[in-house]
Design goal:
CATH class of the largest domain: Alpha Beta
Shape: globular
Strand order of the largest sheet: 3-2-1-4-5-6
Number of helices: 9
CATH topology of the largest domain: Rossmann fold
Number of domains: 2
Order of helices and strands: EHHHHHEHEHEHEEH
CATH superfamily of the largest domain: HAD superfamily/HAD-like
Structural class: alpha/beta
Bound molecules: xylulose-1,5-bisphosphate, magnesium ion
Number of strands: 6
Strand content: 5-15%
Largest sheet: 6 strands, parallel
Helix content: 40-55%
Radius of gyration: 18 Å
CATH architecture of the largest domain: 3-Layer(aba) Sandwich
Length: about 240
């Protein structure tokens, strides 16, 4: 099989974003006079639920026995998540969350090698747009033919919906693509869509179960090795990243 396209996850894969998300959630809680604070250990637990709105709801329902839920919980969560997203995109614009090592080179090589690029993520559209602009420049989003993100599908990862949505928009069969993910939820999503998946680890996902992945890498600092293992028809020489 010749790989026609690479489908990228965003959070934890294109960039190590989750601590930025975590701090932005905490800023939104403080701004709304809620004495909630998600430390790294609790956030690691909450990351089991994908989607920021879903994660807040999961926290309210499962971790706050004494909390009186507002009448309109949906509105309450939506508002908190909107405030959080504003803080997060501000963090991105201030340059606090760079792309992971090797990512820009991989994207550049893929474009030069006529490998099509897409994104399949659970995060919100404004987060993707800002991350790509910051990391790749003003035209960053245009490097990707299709961007599947946020609420574009009803069921978020680990459901395969977002990957099916991307494949359909690309007009490609799963067999002609590979996916790059960082988490067990992401891997389960891409595998359920029938896509060969490679994983790069980060400090939140390091101990998760990646059975079914084609290969697991710490990171993409050795792109030559990544190209050899994935079979991507791209330059094999070592890069300084
Ligand atoms: C990771 C997620 C997202 C982020 C927070 O997405 O589950 O929910 O944690 O972003 P992926 P939002 O790994 O699929 O890129 O608050 O915008 O959801
Ligand atoms: Mg991820």
């Amino acid at each position: 099989m010749t790989i026609q396209a690479i489908i990228f996850d965003v959070d934890g894969t294109l960039a190590d974003t989750e601590d930025g998300h975590r701090k932005s959630f905490n800023k939104a809680f403080a701004e709304n006079k809620l004495d909630w604070s998600w430390d790294a250990a609790l956030y690691n637990q909450l990351l089991g639920v994908t989607g920021g709105k879903e994660r807040i709801k999961y926290f309210v329902e499962g971790f706050l026995p004494g909390f009186t839920r507002p009448e309109d919980i949906e509105e309450f969560v939506k508002h908190l998540h909107k405030v959080k997203t504003a803080h997060y995109t501000a963090m991105l614009r201030e340059g606090h969350i760079p792309l992971r090592p090797g990512i820009k080179q991989l994207l550049t090589d893929a474009r030069n090698g006529n490998i099509r690029l897409a994104i399949a993520t659970t995060t919100s559209p404004e987060n993707v747009a800002t991350l790509l602009q910051q990391g790749l420049g003003a035209d960053g989003a245009s490097w990707f033919e299709v961007i599947g993100c946020g609420d574009v599908v009803p069921h978020k990862k680990p459901a395969p919906d977002v990957y099916f949505w991307v494949l359909e928009k690309m007009g490609l069969p799963a067999a002609d693509c590979i996916a790059l993910e960082d988490s067990e939820n992401g891997l389960r999503s891409s595998l359920a869509a029938g896509i060969k998946t490679f994983v790069t680890l980060n400090h939140y996902t390091r101990n998760q179960n990646f059975s079914g992945a084609e290969a697991v890498f710490n990171d993409l600092t050795d792109l030559g090795n990544f190209y050899r293992v994935t079979g991507l028809p791209l330059p094999k020489q070592q890069f300084s990243v």
